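Quick one:
INPUT:
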């Protein structure tokens, strides 16, 4: 009989031993589709259990102690992170009718505040820190009335992504109504005495009760709210909203990737269904007497359709911009022209069309970069185009729709010097020969000798792809000799909906194969070697990391899995995860889904006696998207696995959730911890 391999990943050498608290294996068995699964760590799913609370704190403390004893602080790193994060950061001005608003966080402040400009003077009108002096309250959204006279400011607490909405008048910031608690969505009605509110309290999320939408009179008691709509299953969502520049109301209900769309005009008693699909999605916007619909209906690269408000049914839709070989990314309807953003490979381009759908010209950008967004602000007749690059913070330009004159509208200086860095896009073959794009950033003049410390990032899911964006704090790694690679793996949107479909459900393994092939490319082209390669991903990307370290543990020196999904057999039973059944499947009710998910679920593919790379798993205790139970169970199972020699570390943020809303101090602390972990592991002390 062949010996069981004990060590398959690079070992941690010359470091102190890691002694995490013991985790008891408490067998719990359940049988689905004829398979009996023994889960020894299901007890860790109850985060309110005192034993789980104690275990989690002890794990976190053990991680902190181990890292403090075994990893060096990177000289100057905290100062660089602080200089970038804790500085005056002012957002672009948002025009609303004849008013102007912006958010700003000044150096030393914990959170961003909301400002307006009155007679040339900047006036602060909302400060979330007054709600929590420790800085755990943050603005998560702002919705303005049509004239900008009032604003609904959504605030989340400790990263929970459940909002309390504060209604303020926007000259002095005075609250004009009772705060509205327990919301996941807010939209002003045409009659601005009312709003559509989507209710999703902590209790509803924990019990997976579908979100409910109500008509709420501003300032009224909540028990007077009028119920409007709720899906039957928590895997679906439903919403109401009034068009800002037309007299129509839209009602949408569906899952993550398909919907049924209804419309009503002012005074209509019965909404008219204009579209329905269990495969495709349609996203409408009404301006005057026309409805513009961006859809992937029988068009995986998307197309733009137009219908009249008077005859909005699907059979009356006509193509304005048909599907092309490139991917439709965005559009903006101005006064005389419609601007289209498409994507070819990983580069976005801007085109101008007349109102009849005829191409007028491609619009040359004012600088080298990529288009992040395009939007037309009808009240102020302003076309704004956001342009991003790897080496300077994103800028916003105004574009004259007739003369095509560009003017800088917004830019934010950065303390990071990126002069000595360069970026490129490469294409590499995956396991099945598919051509996959990847960005690579490094210092100019780098030697390809296989010794460069390298960080490979991936996501690969939910139709979210890679795009050019400012390197930001990762520059601290690259300027010290690191190589940063971002792989555009299947499951994203790099090549339209088909690229997404090829990395979801029964093709999820393609995502993992693409990422593994990216690592093999970096090694094969001598950017790095196995002992100098770390990988990182979060959320769905955390699942990616868990899967690939199980499948190819010898390929990586270190791994960072942040706010991850890891128990894919039970994932759908917690918080909002039923939304993701269209992406992964339903293992509980569908035997085919169960069988396929079981082939890759990180929690269920830990091989006895196999040593995985040193792994840091990061989670937020208040996460309302991905329950931190995934991180806890995976860490426990790996730590108890015979032959797991390299440390498997759990870092918990007890005052945050999935990542948003963190205070300045929290951002600096976590970034420093994670970066020092992988930089030390890659020999960058």
């Amino acid at each position: 009989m062949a010996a069981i391999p004990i060590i398959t990943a690079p070992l941690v050498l010359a470091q102190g031993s890691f002694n995490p608290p013991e985790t008891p294996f408490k067998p719990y068995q359940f049988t689905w589709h004829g398979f009996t699964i023994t889960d020894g760590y299901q007890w860790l799913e109850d985060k309110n259990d005192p034993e789980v609370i104690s275990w989690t704190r002890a794990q976190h403390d053990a991680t902190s102690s181990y890292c403090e004893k075994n990893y060096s602080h990177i000289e100057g790193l905290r100062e660089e992170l602080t200089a970038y994060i804790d500085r005056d950061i002012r957002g672009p001005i948002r025009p609303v009718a004849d008013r102007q608003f912006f958010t700003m966080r000044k150096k030393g402040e914990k959170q961003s505040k909301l400002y307006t400009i009155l007679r040339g003077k900047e006036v602060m009108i909302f400060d979330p820190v007054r709600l929590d002096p420790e800085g755990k309250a943050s603005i998560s959204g702002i919705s303005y009335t049509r004239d900008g006279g009032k604003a609904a400011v959504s605030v989340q607490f400790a990263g929970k992504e459940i909002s309390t909405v504060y209604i303020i008048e926007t000259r002095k910031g005075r609250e004009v109504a009772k705060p509205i608690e327990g919301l996941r969505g807010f939209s002003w009605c045409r009659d601005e005495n009312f709003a559509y509110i989507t209710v999703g309290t902590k209790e509803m999320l924990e019990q997976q009760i579908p979100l409910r939408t109500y008509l709420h009179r501003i300032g009224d008691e909540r028990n007077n709210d009028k119920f409007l709509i709720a899906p039957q299953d928590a895997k679906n969502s439903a919403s109401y909203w009034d068009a800002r520049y037309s007299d129509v109301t839209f009602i949408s209900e569906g899952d993550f990737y398909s919907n049924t769309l209804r419309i009503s005009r002012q005074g209509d008693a019965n909404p008219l269904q204009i579209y329905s699909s269990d495969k495709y999605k349609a996203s409408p916007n009404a301006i005057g007497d026309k409805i513009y619909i961006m859809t992937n209906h029988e068009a995986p690269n998307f197309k733009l359709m137009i219908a009249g408000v008077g005859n909005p049914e699907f059979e009356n839709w006509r193509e304005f911009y048909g599907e092309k070989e490139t991917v439709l990314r965005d559009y903006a309807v101005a006064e005389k022209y419609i601007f289209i953003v498409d994507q070819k490979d990983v580069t976005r381009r801007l085109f101008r069309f007349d109102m009849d759908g005829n191409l007028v010209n491609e619009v040359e950008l004012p600088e080298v970069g990529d288009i992040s967004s395009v939007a037309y602000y009808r009240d102020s007749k302003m076309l704004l185009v956001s342009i991003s690059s790897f080496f300077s913070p994103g800028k916003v330009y105004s574009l004259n729709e007739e003369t095509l004159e560009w003017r800088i509208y917004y830019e934010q200086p950065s303390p990071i010097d990126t002069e000595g860095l360069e970026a490129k896009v490469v294409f590499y073959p995956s396991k099945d020969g598919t051509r996959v794009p990847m960005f690579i950033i490094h210092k100019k003049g780098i030697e390809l000798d296989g010794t460069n410390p390298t960080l490979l990032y991936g996501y690969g899911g939910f139709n979210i792809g890679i795009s050019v964006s400012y390197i930001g704090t990762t520059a601290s790694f690259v300027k010290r000799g690191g190589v940063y690679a971002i792989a555009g793996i299947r499951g994203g949107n790099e090549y339209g909906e088909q690229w997404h479909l090829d990395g979801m459900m029964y093709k999820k393994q393609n995502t993992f194969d693409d990422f593994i092939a990216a690592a093999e490319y970096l090694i094969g082209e001598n950017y790095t070697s196995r002992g100098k390669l770390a990988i990182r991903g979060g959320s769905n990307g955390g699942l990616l990391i868990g899967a690939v370290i199980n499948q190819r543990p010898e390929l990586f020196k270190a791994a960072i899995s942040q706010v991850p999904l890891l128990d894919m057999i039970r994932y759908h039973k917690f918080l909002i995860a039923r939304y993701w059944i269209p992406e992964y499947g339903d293992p509980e009710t569908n035997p085919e889904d169960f069988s396929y998910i079981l082939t890759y679920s990180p929690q269920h593919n830990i091989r006895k006696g196999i040593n995985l790379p040193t792994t840091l798993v990061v989670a937020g205790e208040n996460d309302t998207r991905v329950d931190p139970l995934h991180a806890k169970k995976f860490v426990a199972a790996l730590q108890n696995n015979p032959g797991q020699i390299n440390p498997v570390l759990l870092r918990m943020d007890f005052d945050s959730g999935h990542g948003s809303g963190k205070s300045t101090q929290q951002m600096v602390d976590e970034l420093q911890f994670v970066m020092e972990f992988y930089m030390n592991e890659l020999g960058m002390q």
